[in-house]
Fold each of these.
Amino acid sequence: MLPELGQFALILALLLAGVQAFFGIAGPMLGRDRWIAAVTPAVAGQAVMVATAVGCLIAAFVGNDFSVSYVAANSNTALPVFYRVTALWGAHEGSLLLWILLLAGWTVAVAIGSARLPPRFAARVLGVLGVVSFGFLLFTLATSNPFMRLDPPMPDGHDLNPILQDPALAIHPPILYTGYVGFAVAFAFACAAMLEGRLDQTWARWTRPWTTAAWAFLTCGIALGSFWAYYELGWGGFWFWDPVENASFMPWLVGTALIHSLAVTEKRGLFKSWTLLLAILTFSLSMLGTFLVRSGVLVSVHSFAADPARGIFILAFLVIMIGGALALYAWRAPLLKSSAGFELGARESFLLFNNVLLIIAATTVFAGTMAPLISDALGLGTVSVGPPYFNPTFLLSMLPLTALLSVGIHSNWKRGRLRDSQRALLMTLVAAAVLACALVYGIYEHGQVLTPVGALLGVWIILSSFVEPIARWRRGVRVPRGMLGMSIAHSGLGVLVIALTTVQSFTREHDVALAPGASTTVGSYVFRFDGVQAIEGPNYDGLGATVTVTRGGAPVSVFKPQKRQYWVQHQMTTETAIRMDHGNNILVALGEDLGAGRWSLRVQIRPLVSFIWLAALVMAIGGAVAASDRRYRISRITEATVPAAPEGSAA
Amino acid sequence: MTPRRRRLGLVVGILLGVSIAGVLALSAFRKNVTFYFDPSQVAAGQVPVGEPFRLGGMVTEGTVQRAPGSLEVRFVVTDFAHDVPVSYSGVLPDLFREGAGVVAQGRLRSDGTFLADEVLAKHDEKYMPPAVAKSLKRRHGEARSEPGS
């Protein structure tokens, strides 16, 4: 009964999304206040219905209802209850349902948060979100129904893909999707502004906290995925430029450009149509990411589901959504002229460079990701594009970006003089050079050409991003959260640059063949292989090795990497053992029995690799702090006071 | 300079930057794209010796050989029309097995052996890389071959 109830709830949610979309967009257009008043109840009703549907599917998973096709394909009686719940988003259908649930959550948050916005504008925002929700619900019901029944039911399920049975991956999709879906809010604000034909600095102030919050979630989600790939896939890398990773990275790059462009729109009333375009682009890439990953279009590790039959629907939906938004843009953007000017050395110019460089980076990633698909479709042969392409092209835009950052955050709006902050800039630069040399030549022995450059830029960003907050603090002036958040996020980027530089320059990895009792030396560490024992878990068995690691005779740790064989899918997975020691991340993975009593082991030492994920966390925290700035809390605004902004946009 | 000319200069500068980036990206692209070949293309001599490429196919049953206690491993990759012997040194991925799809990255030596620096077999046991599936399907008509997969 429950699955039918879930499906019924989804159909009701579809209808309510339609109501929300229609009244939200048509109401303000025709000036019907009673239509506008109907939007919020529709939002609430839709959220309740979607939550009911998700609840029904979770109940089917927990209750092992293998008459539901999706449950049978992704769960098993031996699966621990925690993973039975997270199996909800283990494949395509459930992921879409999760997407819809998160969209409903964001929509409710927007409805609550916009209670004080002009009612017409709020209705338009909710209406656009209704259109998005309607499209996704229709897609789910028409092509990817998670409540489809099996007749006869399966006696037991096919089990969740073993590599997904992991705590980090259990929470990775919800956080990543929260970020993806959050950009729908920025998209809806952009569309609402275009429908209204009016965009002022107040608009930017409303939009900023939502966009920054979505960006913070996306940052966390990408970092979690990278962390998971590092320890679970057993290859020991943190980023592979895999199509799926790129699919989540492109909206991040464009979203980062968006939050910076929004800053200019808020403070100076400039870059208006550019900001709108970025909002559309970010959400389009988010949708593209969702669909590309789960539809199996891209050949990749993560494409668990492969069903090209859904492609036509996806394509049609994307064309309608993105094409519609761009058409609206072409029609309305010319109304939104910005009039103010700025000098070359002003902060506006630096933020413009930031945007251009981020868009170049996103474009090169896009080109590399799509090239294999395009080359294949045109019959030019099958190609693969990997790190040899992505690393240098990405560096090309990131080097100037990180180099300009420190100067940019000390520049002034409108005026191109740097005189006030010249001293602080020079001092931080000198301090950064000293610290970078100490790091590169003192702690680590050698390096490549780019090693000191990366270390210098990273340290400089960290030092310079706190100059202004510290100066204010010493003068006893309050540091606004927006500024504090920016400093935290930028220092996170600095940490990331340093971590990436050391990891790329000083990583050591070896595959070795060892008999029990034998040892091998990598860097300053000695790895002694103590043998292999049988192990057993709740739904797997396998082998566990013991490796004792010492450094200069002193014990560091005992590593216990495993090789697991899951019973239902008979899939082998490698459970690496990872420890931190003196900032070094030591990874040991168990290979296989080589015969003659020897086993293969993979040993890696990556300095500061954990700081990559830590840096992402710091950046996300910075975003959260900035989004919570008091400035964004909306005091009562009536429609009459809105167009009071100085650079009045619409005529 | 008038604001108008300054803005023009800015736009020209950005365009210049973008085009330089574009040219550099394109050249990186030409140099760093790895091509994929199947064993029949290798047999037909379409692959330059010594150039890196990706070889895809199935691991032939019963061909995985290892000198006991050593990381050196040899196996044969087939598309059921032609075979290519592969040699690799290192830890094989979890999903590598006989009769399963595999993609190896490396170079062809002059003796016809493919020297792999990387073996990719990342997917589940039923999965076949689409490129492998396609080339197997294409070769199926040409070769009388065993009923593959």
Note: Chain B has two domains: 1-33, 36-142.
Amino acid sequence: MEERRGFLNWVLGGGIAASVASFLYPVIKFVMPPDIPEAPVHEVNVGKASAFAADSGKIVKFGNKPVMLVHTSDDQWKAFSGVCTHLNCTVQFRSDQHQIWCACHNAFYDLNGKVLSGPPPRPLDQFDVRLKGDDVVIGRRA
Amino acid sequence: MYRWLNERLALDSIRELMSHKKVPVHSQSIWYYFGGITLFLFMIQVATGIMLLLYYRPTPTEAYESVQFIMTRVQFGWLIRSIHSWAANLMVLAAFIHMFSVVFLHAYRRPREMTWFSGMALLGLILAFGFSGYLLPWNEVSYFATKVGTDMAASVPAVGSYLARFIRGGEDIGGGTLTRFFGLHVAVLPGITTVLLLVHVVLVQQHGISAPPKLKRPVPEMPFFPNFALREMMAWYGTLAVLGVLAALYPWELGVKADPFASAPAGIRPEWYFLAPFYTLKLIPAHIWIFEGEVVGLAGFAILIVVWCLLPFWGVKRPRWVAGAGVAFIAYLATFSVLGYYR
């Protein structure tokens, strides 16, 4: 008798647990956002070189990511991920310091993307920049 | 009329129950008002939040413009939005004062442990209200505050990336995040808060109001109704006056519309109640031993929060430790908030 009751309790409890799991599974799946595949971006023409003055930096679009394009005072072109490696803020170019700065937690990077001061744990990812006629083209570094 | 209602609603039994409730009277009784003030501000938030819902649109293309519409075209829209924003800040302040008064009056001790836990959960919910509501106007400051806040979740070992994706509703802050935060702010959090608030108030009713253990027994008392209730009403009225003055004289600004491809502006900082952790994260170096500084900082915050929540288990026999920890906590919050604001 006890054995039968134990078995029934187990079946009933297991059934309830399974039904709760079957309710929760779609709920959990629903609240996790679906993957939206993006077309891979390898190169982006960001505009005419004349639009970027020497000793300046500007955030440009690389697909749906911000990229910091820097035109140095000695006419070099450099591009870095525009996202600070600390907590994801978008960086800016400081022409007074000739450095890249993140205003959120006061971090500085040099013009090779290396961390000079502040809390970022890694350097900024670098992109390739080439001039195609008067156009500035940014490409993902292999 | 009263007899008719009493027959159906048993009003006499409620009056009877209220007549038994007493409030201790001593030199620190003023701190008893802050729980009620927090509740009052929550009620104002619900009322003004419902009003804002009539015009607000939770999409990246319309959110900022709809708040602008509320502030410039809707009659008294600027005032309602300003009251909502100021009351949110005052509610956080009142909740913190209430928590510290419980700490310094040692009101967390047996049998009120569950009241303390439910209160701490409510404080967490109030901060979650602040964080989720901050994004809704879709302005520059709120956009970057949300970027930083959700990226902290990404630092959690093993599940961080899933957690950040879940909170953001996608890879980055965007329309998915806005609708998610909106749903959280106007439906999920109010629902949970209302239930937990009921539990908290019922527990306060059940155990009565705690008198500090140092006081000589019996502690003089006053009836809750009408004596304390009328005083509490005056406190609410005073709070309303402060709120009205702040909202009318310092209308809450809207700022610049968020642009995902703009740099974080100079001088960016979160709301005052997140300034202390914000400044702490600024000071922590990139690496501490083999760990990233940010992970160590967040782990430190998590441990401190857990230890603080478990106060009834370690603090009852060590009231001096608790008082010291309370003073240290307030000193940390005050110093780092001021430094976070100015540096």
Note: Residues 175-207 of chain B form the longest helix (33 residues).
